[in-house]
Amino acid sequence: MSISPTSESVKSIIDCTDRNISVSRGVRNEMVMASQESKQTGLFSAIFVSMRVGHWIKNSFVLAPLLFSMSFNDPDAWLKALAATFAFGLLSSAVYLVNDICDRNRDRAHPVKRDRPIASGRLPVSVAAICAGVLVIAAMAVAVSVAMPIDQTQPMGGWALVVWAGGYFILNLLYSLWLKSHTIIDVIVVALGFVLRAMAGAAAISTPVSPWLVVCTFTLCLFIALTKRRGEILSLPAEMAAQARPVSRGYELKDIDYMVTVSSSMAILTYCLYCLAPGTVNRIGSAHMVWTIPIVIYGMFRFNRITSQAASDDPVQVLLRDRIMWLVLTGYVIASGLILVYGSDDAVRSILDMDLITA
Fold it and tell me: Are residues 161 and 85 in the same domain?
């Protein structure tokens, strides 16, 4: 039986339609899969951005005791110090996530912060909270591993690193929930966070915590915190600054400038006293740390100048972009290392009379 041309045309149209439907379904499935992958990639990107890994540079204070205890030639000390620094990096990222959760409504009023993943809605609050919890658990696990095996003869029975790490997170949790709304207390708490970093670094390598480490770190970081507050005031109109960060209402520019001047003076003075302290001179075998004082003064004056001119509320970004500040920091580390290693040699030790200090 023969098939008419009309029947063949209908069959051809049906086959073509089936193929088009099949292709359309395939394309739609691929688009759905691509959309899901894009969402996953976007979520991971949002988490990474919220972690602020670029700000982990602040945790370099954990490494400070490694230099000043003259343990920088000990590989085991380096391993423990770097592990402790990593633990504080995870903790600081958890703190940023918690802080962004608490500030999400205020951040939406800020011209820059409104683009943060949590404020913009790219990162759900529930996911951010879970990530913060995971980071805290991971950080504390690293801290415990560094503290092991526990040495009962060490301060706090060998648990000092874990205690300082836990104290750092609790302090910053209180800061995010309450303390950052109180004028002056907010910058003091920020400075204390850096002190805890330095003390944790000393605990990680089992070196005694010097009172000078506490005082010098606190005064320096108080100065840095105040320059950040000044940047927040300068970078936004008064009304918008107060809306984005309510504590800004308690600061006036003239007051901030005065506090910056006082804190920088205190930082320089305490560092000078540290360099001249009999304990410091006797420990390193010379008084040559005084040669690092001009580097510290120049660094602080330049940091004050560039943060004031940039009018930025993120001094870390200002620091990272300034090559001269990087040269200053590198020069300070190199000069301090050379003095600590070679300053006690007979050929150079007598250049400055130690007896006039230690007598």
Answer: yes
